[in-house]
Prior knowledge:
Two copies of one chain form a homodimer. Chain A is built from twelve helices and twelve strands. With 364 residues, chain A is α/β, with parallel strands linked by helices. The radius of gyration of chain A is 27 Å and the shape is elongated. At the A-B interface, helix 4, helix 5, strand 2, helix 6 and helix 11 of A face helix 4, helix 5, strand 2, helix 6 and helix 11 of B. Chain B binds a DNA duplex (30 and 30 nucleotides) through residues 24, 26-28, 36-40, 42-43, 45-46, 49-53, 56, 71-72, 74-81.
Amino acid sequence: MADVRPESRGAAGRRGTAAAPPRRVTLQDVADRAGVSLTTASRVVNDGSRRVGKPLADRVHRAVADLGYTANLQARAVATGQSTMIGVALRDISDPYFSSIAAGLIEVAASSRLLVCMSSTAAHEEAEREYVALMRAQRARAVVLVGSRSDNAAARDALRAELAAFTRSGGRAACIGQDLLGVDTVLPENKAGADALARALAALGHRRFAVLAGPRSLLTARERTEGFRAGLRAWSVPLDAAQIVHGDLSRDGGYQAMSEILAAGGPLPGCVFAVSDIMAVGALARLRAAGLRVPGDIAVAGFDDIPTLRDVYPPLTTVRLPLKRLGEIAARLVLSDDAPGPRVVPVPGEVVLRDSTLPRPPAA
Amino acid sequence: MADVRPESRGAAGRRGTAAAPPRRVTLQDVADRAGVSLTTASRVVNDGSRRVGKPLADRVHRAVADLGYTANLQARAVATGQSTMIGVALRDISDPYFSSIAAGLIEVAASSRLLVCMSSTAAHEEAEREYVALMRAQRARAVVLVGSRSDNAAARDALRAELAAFTRSGGRAACIGQDLLGVDTVLPENKAGADALARALAALGHRRFAVLAGPRSLLTARERTEGFRAGLRAWSVPLDAAQIVHGDLSRDGGYQAMSEILAAGGPLPGCVFAVSDIMAVGALARLRAAGLRVPGDIAVAGFDDIPTLRDVYPPLTTVRLPLKRLGEIAARLVLSDDAPGPRVVPVPGEVVLRDSTLPRPPAA
DNA sequence: ATAACCTTGGAAAGGGCTTTCCCGAGAATA
DNA sequence: TATTCTCGGGAAAGCCCTTTCCAAGGTTAT
Lengths: 364, 364
């Protein structure tokens, strides 16, 4: 608060006047001014349902313009029992992974003239559940949960229950992530993507790997690690458990995890797989700090293909997820009214090989 | 739509049953079940205003739990005339500049238990005005407009008028950008920042500059260009108008603008200033494609200090804006109720010199 | 000419909640 | 004991809309 330095420029203190709560213009005011009944005014304003004669309609429109009337959407929502709100819960909007998804969601929602309410649930695991409850209280039309589930079964059950209550009361729900909540799900194929990446890297000749595996509890991180291991297995390439380092799913987490690998002191792995691009960037920074060249001394790969990072140097090998599309699909799932049962839309990733994993020239 | 591939898994077609609109639990239901009046139930649910005897309160709580009652916040908003919504309009949430600001806004709003509704206004200039109108209709408590104003005076006036109507009807408004709307404003010091950057670059020995100036119509882009020019003037360094290339405020815009400079064919500038980091990244990509090294052959600087780009290579010289803080400050402005008149909070940028503008070693 | 419509407008009953009154009963004061 | 307070409860009047139902007038069909 202390950092708000108001350079007040208005007339000093209009405070004393006890700020009369501004009398808002209601539809009744419009009706009165136009000399028609409330009913008629309502009909004119929500043109469609039933026609009103031209002369009266004109009078009402005039009154609306004169008074600067705007319908109270909350009241309308109460009266009709229909809301135009859709809630989106994601871990951290400033993370490009989430903000890209959010962009897709917002775009589709806006095209349906729906309001998107966003919340950050990074704070604590309960936050998602609380947000769904809040959306239920708001009688939101739909809610979308974005991001990996964790392995906390209790929290998951509570969330499931809350979502069930939400859908039972007439709302639609979807999530982007693991299909564990009993609602429509957009399923990024983490495992298959990481598997394909591992095979591609092995095909390039890489043999000694390390994985910056993200938090143990996040299923997405696990799936990617698991898929990577499976892909390597197909090439009979071993992945020593000691080479799997956990850490936060962030730039700093990647930096930190990479540090641990360097500190371990053993022979340097030939290729490091970070389970997200953001972590990979941290790893790159750490390697640079150590004076190691990528891919000269060590190769690095990520996951997601964050748009902002497509131009980093060296260009980062990764698995591309159509992030914006994930959001669009989720929005469409939640807005389409044909709903026989929970649907699952798997979305594959695409391996993108770039310079950061170029095979080392055979030692001279 | 075609790309949604529902792998339906529920029982086929529960459709025929004409989906009876789920009867929602109301406070009256709770009151009935608890055997108390509606009034009492309301008082228990909104604990605070007036006390209710323990035994009755318990009965009500039981009923709430049994029925899974959740207050209808819309109805409450209608009854009290107070909403808990705050609207945020920004150009594009997937742009890290905006998403960082949004993170700050959301954090503060959430700590006040307010709902944040987000909209993307990239589509057309009218979008901001429409969104403010929508927020007025929603009786939102506040609205925050994020991003540069344009030089379209007509649109600006319309927006001013809409904002005036919004505040007149009791809402609070703020913007992050130029102080042109007659509302509380958080003012990033674009000009001063660019000025300081120019001086710092000149001090490093750079002399021949080009500017990737962003769209002509965006005031933020103009201010940065203008400030840069002023800073150079202090060092008596000329900036040829031909070296100012306009383009979209995006990665591709930067790439494109850089292309134009290269295509012009004249002597290469020694240093390129892109008015945003995102454009700078595009420029770096273009230079790399041309086989030019940064800073070896040419220096590059940006503006904003986007977090995701702090680790790109070469490390990018830029002007750091505390993006998340911008959002926090705006949120606080709009939530503090002491409001004598429109306030302006200038926020300075900080020049961050990194490797991308290292002075070239004197030609051997 | 009369019956059968359709059109147009309004009164009134919701929708789900808060809040202002008002009332009775017990506690505190005189 | 009489009087004033408090306290806990309810009836009912809002808040701002939408929507059903009804009535009056004008058309068309028989």
